[in-house]
Amino acid sequence: MEEKTKMAEEEGEKPQTQPETLKRIRFEDRISSLPDCLLIEILSRLPSTKHAITTTTLSKRWQHLWTSLHTLIFTHHKTHNHPQTHFYSYVDKTLSQCHHFKLNKLTLYTCYDYRFESQVNNWIRYAVNCNVEELNLTLWNVECEAEFLLDQFFFNCCCFTHLKLSGCVFNPIGDINWSKLNKLWISHANLDEGLIENVLSGSPVLETLVLDNCYGYRRVNITSKSVKKLVFSGYMVPDNVSDDDVANVVEINAPGVLSLAIHDDLLLWKLLFVDVSSLVEADLDYTKGGHYDTTTPKEAEEEMLKGFILNLRHVKELKIGIFCFKVLCRLEAKGFVFPSNLKVHDVTSSPLYSDDDSVGLSDWSDSDSAESRDWEVLLLDDGPTGDEDAFV
Amino acid sequence: MSFSKTIMLRNYDGETFVVDEVVAVEPQTIEHMIEDGCANTSIPLPNITSKILSKVIEHCKKHVETPNSNEKDAKADLKSFDFDFVKADQGTLFDLILAVNYLNIKGLLDLIYQTIADMIKGKTPEEEEEMRRVNAWVFSCFVGVTCLYFKSKKI
């Protein structure tokens, strides 16, 4: 056996497993020699808490490290095979082992129904008790309707700096108090003007507001001096509303906002600007659905885009994305003269671009490509590796 | 005509490195030393080797010299620089992390932490399978093991 190996080596072949194993052992030795505080920083950057827990197999020294992670990420993307109770039990078990004084971030991404309401509220309470700064909750269901009712204590947490809330129901009794909140992203929620007002007045240092596929409100009124960036990403219509009722007109009044983005699918008749006089940059990359009045869908699209362009002439830089680009081409063909602040994203690299769209591209194409969102949310897929099976 | 102020760093091997002040203050530890008035002759960094210190200076220089803008090109350039920077061999990476932790350079620390985390995660399929097999046992015994561990430590 040994002779065979020697002969193989002489012929220039290496035994394949040995160097890899040695490398791994060396790696584990070196990493284990780092002090606890550095290891915790490293483990906190693994894609999910589950990955961090698996390091307990490395050695006895690692067994308690993961319980001090400053970031907790629990994701469950699967809707088949595994009953959700399995995932919720796993998170319960995990949190019961943790002893944090301070938590920087908690991310929870899972399918949800009302059975798990008290569990989720308990987890949030744990995080808030650890003064969590960034909380990302995505509690989705197949109908895309918000179902998780946020507990009242949630509206009085002064530790939040970044909140992303998807699939949550907001029903605050009294004034909201999010005194340190800097970025707020609300997704798939039923909002009204009173609630938006409550949120804004309770968040005195809020700089970025993202309304992602929310509905119910007719006006976004931002008079707060702190908010600098508004992202209007889609306007939804719940399933129980008939098509005839979708004659929504939404107004944006944001005299102090510097940056505006309009994205995603707008199921709206009209989106009007009451006051956006401070805007420096704007980004239009949306599709229009919804009500069409007496016009055809294409005419309605053109009317909306034309309205935006004319009302945003004062903006230093007005960027147009691929979805609006097609409408832009039609406007140009009809003789519309575009203002000089218009810039088109690098649409040729988009899979939606076709050669028919190339008319007039050279006039205002710009080498800047797609928008750089400075909003990063760590929502990670544990992948179809069957990892969830491990925690039976 | 103005010239930028320079700072002298003296390291473990006795070598001195002369760097522009604007680069030298990237590490918060050095910034605080300068503020406290300890930088009259040279700043001592006895626990850092020449090899590591020159790598750190290289990184600080690049980030200071790249304009802090939202320009796509500048961002892509930095990203590509960072990517190449951490392709170093394992040994350097672990020496780097200790030095950068001491010097307190947040951006570079984040980069190295993330790189090592990716190395932990990026196992071969065989190792993943082994890990999975072990995990199924580990988690179910987890509570028991933790209790025993703490018991043995008399906690």
- How much of the sequence lies in strands of chain A comes to 15-25%
Largest sheet of chain A: 11 strands, parallel
**Major protein interface:** A-B, 38 and 33 residues
What is the 3D shape of chain B? globular
Q: What oligomeric state best describes the polypeptide chains here?
A: heterodimer
Extended strand count of chain B: 3
The fraction of residues assigned to DSSP E strands of chain B is: 5-15%
**Helix and strand element order of chain B:** EEHHEHHHHH
Alpha-beta classification of chain B: mainly alpha
Poorly predicted ranges of chain B? none
Number of helices of chain A: 10
What is the average per-residue confidence, as pLDDT of chain A, rounded to a whole number?
81
Radius of gyration of chain A: 26 Å
Outline type of chain A: globular
Overall pLDDT confidence of chain B: 76
**Termini gap of chain A:** 42 Å
Question: DSSP helix count of chain B?
Answer: 7
Based on CA atoms alone, the radius of gyration of chain B comes out at 21 Å
Largest sheet of chain B: 3 strands, mixed
